[in-house]
Design brief:
By secondary structure, this protein is an alpha/beta fold. The chain is built from five helices and five strands, in the order βαβααβαβαβ.
């Protein structure tokens, strides 16, 4: 019997793509604000059969500005808000390292978190996309075989819908 789970996915950066990051570090639910069009876009992508993943650099953890627990609270809040619109984020992966701490294979622009996620969830990279607000987001996605869509930070996410079939 064939699986009913989709092999195509949209990977998204978090800060600047999903949520406003004008303050740069967003590490508490009360500072988390969705960017325009996020709910509508993710609902439409879900309707089109895409699984949704978030891959994020969270270097504030490595700088001891906030904790993994803080990030998990933000993610729980974000997921619960999206579930109110029947939007499920399949998995959130994030790198806790700061670039000053040396070479890291999981920090974008490296692709390890993408590769792990693609393997774990049997995603077809040729049918999948990476959406982010930084060239390092797109570079990491491309290294993993994804098509990249670069957007302006904190812009309306609905603009990507015309680029994803």
């Amino acid at each position: 019997m064939a699986s009913t789970t989709s092999n195509k996915a949209v990977f998204l950066d978090r800060d600047g793509t999903i949520n406003n990051n004008s303050d740069y570090y967003v590490y508490s639910p009360d500072r988390f604000v969705f960017n325009p069009g996020v709910v509508e876009t993710l609902a439409e992508l879900t309707k089109r059969g895409y699984r949704l993943f978030i891959i994020s650099n969270q270097s504030g953890i490595g700088k001891n500005l906030y904790s993994i627990k803080d990030v998990e609270k933000v993610h729980d809040f974000m997921k619960s808000e999206l579930l109110k619109s029947c939007i499920e984020i399949t998995c959130i992966m994030y790198c806790t390292h700061h670039p000053d701490s040396g070479k890291c294979l999981c920090r974008k622009p490296e692709s390890l978190l993408f590769e792990k996620t693609i393997h774990r969830f049997t995603i077809d990279p040729k049918q999948s996309y990476m959406v982010g607000d930084s060239p390092r987001d797109i570079d990491a996605g491309k290294k993993a075989g994804l098509k990249g869509i670069l957007i302006e930070a904190n812009s309306d996410l609905r603009q990507i819908l015309k680029k994803i079939k």
